[in-house]
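## Example record

The block below lists the input lines for one assembly entry, exactly as stored, with component labels intact.
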Amino acid sequence: MNIIVCMKVVPDTESKIYVKDGVVVEEGLKFLINPFDEWGIEEALRIKEKLGGKITLLTVGTEKDVEVVKNGLAYGVDDAILLSDPAFKGSDTLGTARILASACKRIEYDLIICGREGADYDTGHTGIALAYVLGIPYVSSCVKVETDGEMLRATRQIDGGHEVHEVALPALFTTSVGLNEPRYPSVKGIMLAKKRSVPVWGKDIVEGAVGHEAAKYEYVEFTQPEEKKKSCKYISGTPEEEIVQLMLLLEQEAKVI
Amino acid sequence: MILVVSEFGDKLKKITLEAIGLARSLGQDVCVLAIGNGLSPLAEELSSYAKVFVTDGVSHCSNELISAHICEVARKTDARLIFLGDTFFGKDIAPLIATQLDWAFMADCTAIEEKDGLLVTRPIYAGKVITKARVKGNAVCTLRAKVFPEAKKSSSFGKETLGLPQITPKIKVLETKKEEQKRPDLTEADIVVSGGRGFKSRENFQICYELADLLGAAVGSSRAASDSGFIDAEYEVGQTGKIIAPKLYFAIGISGAIQHQVGMKSSGTIVSINKDPDAPIFAISDYGIVDDLFKVVPVLIEELKKRK
Amino acid sequence: MQPFPIPTREILWNVPKSVEIGMYVSMGIAAVIFFYGFYRRYTRWMRGKPEVRFDRVKRRVWDFFFYAIGHRRIAEQAYPGIMHLSIFVGFLILFIGTDFVALQYDLGLHIIFGKFYLYFSLFLDLFGLVFMGGILLAAWRRFVMKPEKLDSRWDDIFGLAVLFFIAATGFATEGLRIVATGFPPFEIWSPVGWVIGKAMVGFTVPQLKEIHLAFWIAHFVLILAFIVAMPFTKLSHIFIAPINIFFRSQTPKGALAPVPNIEEVESYGASTLADFTWKQLMGADACLRCGRCHEVCPAKLSDKPLSPKNLIVKIADKLKGGEELYSNIENDELWSCTTCRACMQACPVFVEHVDTIVDMRRFLLFDGKLTGAASKALQKMMNYGNPWGLQESRTQWAEGLDVKTVAQEKDFDVLYWVGCMGAYDPRNRKVAQAFARIMKKAGVRFAILGDEEKCTGDSARRLGEEMLFTMMAQENIETLKKHNVKKIVTHCPHCYNTLKNEYPQLGGNFEVISHTEFIQSLIKEGKIKLNKGMDKTTTFHDPCYLGRYNDIYNPPRNILGKVSGLRQKEMKKSHENAFCCGGGGGHMWMDMTIGRRINHMRLEDSLQTNPDFITVACPFCMAMFDDAIKFRDLVEKVGLKDVAEVVLESMEE
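Predicted structure tokens for the full assembly:
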């Protein structure tokens, strides 16, 4: 059973992110595999352990992402391909999906796994657009999947519960929080993976409009919400007084209620 | 024209009214599409906010089918913007609609302006950065809840019934499991009420659920509380549980050991209630009440009940 | 009967020449089988990797005499101690006795006669009884008392039986000879034989001779059986156990073996038997399933899947070949270990359980078999230098204390290594603050590394992440050298152990002192005075990494002893028998829910002493006890303090 896992390289969500001169500061950020895609890789590995086959990792990015892509190899996937070209710069999520789709068409696959969203831009479009461009069905926000090589049975999150969907392969699903616990990629494994090569595919394999010109949106401004100084405001008095004060603060100062 | 797609199903959700409100504030024509089963009451309700298109008799949301339908309605109404809530329904279908119509897709929007074209504001990096996007052409937007003011009821608008397109979806929905308590998912809730060992017993811990329901919040716990059997381990917030960052986090009867702190310190506003003034949780809280939770929480519950 | 004027006996009396020849021939064959058997075992050990264990010969010889001959650890427990000593000494004496016989008979040295013969006979008879008594004690224990830690295989029964009957037939033969030769009066010096002889007076001499020969042959056959069976059964421990003791580890207890050439190798850790060293394989073979490790292991006692005995036995059983190493070993067996070393402390033959487990963890980790919170903690250590991934400064605990970093103060005498828990954990920050205050009051010129300090890597190494440990250690060593650090004091035993015993493996040689030793000397030198007494009772919980690993038991107790009015009570399991708090071996970062909680069990131990407060000397122990006390809702009833906090309290004016 052949699986393609789409992977994005994002900054560590627990890093401190700063905006300076209107742009997000990249220096000092630790870049890693999008956690949603880590779950994708883990799920692919588990399916491979049961059913055999090949796992290919695809990333749309730039040369500096190669190091993190190699970390993906350290988990035990078979191949990793970087899709990179100056012509891809400025692509929006649909553009990215077209690039991925062009690559997928050149690889034999039964199943494609994408993260529900990227932990940087939190959009959640690429995976679904990829499925549409390839003309395959998708199930999004999955918390449990099972497959026998022919059918995919996926449990997805819905508002207020879960739903179980079944569809014949080839299909695509996007991962959601709690799908699985990824295995630990040992540092040694990562070092060995560094020695492997990651082929780079460019614009000559791509069909469809990508890049800045084709993008339907452009991010023009970045700001940072005010960094709250963390010092606790103590509320005291009788329980009744305390609650009255608290509600006031939550409504008017913090504006969360 | 702005097409607002109501949340799938027969319940009127606030986000739909917020979407209509936003649409109206942009000064455009608005219509609402409701899809689900047993929609008469909903359709009636919605018709006092905008023109309603009703597609009844649909029990499962099959993304192919529903998206195709929404695209048809969008073409029919000559819509240029489609709004949905940033819910699991919205996340599942809005991207597909956009791709099918070849429109832009904007997720989790917190502001939309028409200023030399469409300018959309949305949070990224889990809310650590706010960005503005200039959008070319038409767009499908999912809207963040509780940001936009709800529309006001006005006169009675018309209702029109529409049927689904003739498509056989490839995906079969086998079963739908709705949880008994329709609480939001812990990792995605905007408000979380978290209880700790201070509750002393599983029975006492139930107060958290009551409070959470009044706030529309999810329930979480410290490791200590789940170890003591007050609540299942899947609700644990912390290093060995879930790492979350809701807008509002209540830490009640939680001392705030570092394993717990790591799981919630990125929350927007942290309110802690603990009778121990030295509890480490206060060091990372915005508001702290040093008092007996058994005295304070019931008062809070009463206050919230009054407001309902 | 002819009276023998000189006490002696005819060796091989009544044994026809044919039988005698048969004896030598069969002994020759038995010897071949014996040597072949042990050689085969040896080849199985040698399938393992090389390891240097021929150094420090003097120490090795001493340990051999002290622990093997001297029974030091075997005698820790009274019943089995006496039991084994009896068998051991009895066997040794009987064996030496046989050697004398051989010397006389085969080499012609005329020794066994006269007064010597009298004492010789008595000695052998008495020790023959002691020997049989020991075996009976063993049989009683194994088959009647049936302690849970003992399992019985066929060779346990065979071993006891063959030894018993060798002795029994030996006595029978002696008795029959005595009666058949007409009770020479000096033979009363073989009292057992004399009594047996008296019971056989009804027979005629020819009958007695027949019976004697039968018993003699039986005796001999049993001995042959014993010799031939030795290499193939548990009896092999007679040789392998002392050899294993001879080759025991002589490196510091807390230093796990590094992986040679770790940067270049393709993989490391134990994926198959051949990945273990020959010493580890021999160690598994030396295990005689006594179960002492089993009965002290905190994982075992808290119902986790690990039993150190079962693990080692599984490995030993695989030495014959054919089976995959992990065929019957669960991953959780290996993750359950807290590396407390109670097993290695108890083991009479010095099997190295912890090192074996860590080697297997190294492989598991490489094979992607670690998930969950520990996995995240390792990734955070790698990316941020601490297990929580915190990016705040490591100096926040020191705010307001006027503590200088090495960047600010070049002129310092000792570096205070704070560690991750002291830097970030709210409860443990108080310990760091207390210790810093003590040092300030004592006028100690110390500095901290501040944000240049990174996790020492102890947890990473114990979880099997050897590569990450190596990287972290190298970074820290470079930082320490850069700032010309010579002397380090730390309040964390895990940091202490790694800095002192493991960093030298990577070129980091520093003088490392535990805060307990440090405070003890400050008191001795009069630099701090403990003026304020306290009318309280406390019990001290020995941290595994300070106690068993580094033999530091007295300094904390001495310190507590200097606080006037403070009464100390010892827990039943204290010092080298102390029960782990459950935080080591990476467990601080894991979410293992199998079995009971080790920290709750240890809290129970401490509550037995009815303390006003519990004294700890380790941040992991602090966190573990804190958690357990809160769980039991005993916060108002039992206090919890680090040694430094007790000292600071009694220093206050």
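Chain B touches chain A through 81 residues (CB under 8 Å). The helical segments of chain B are 14-25, 40-46, 63-77, 88-101, 202-215, 223-227, 258-264, 293-307.
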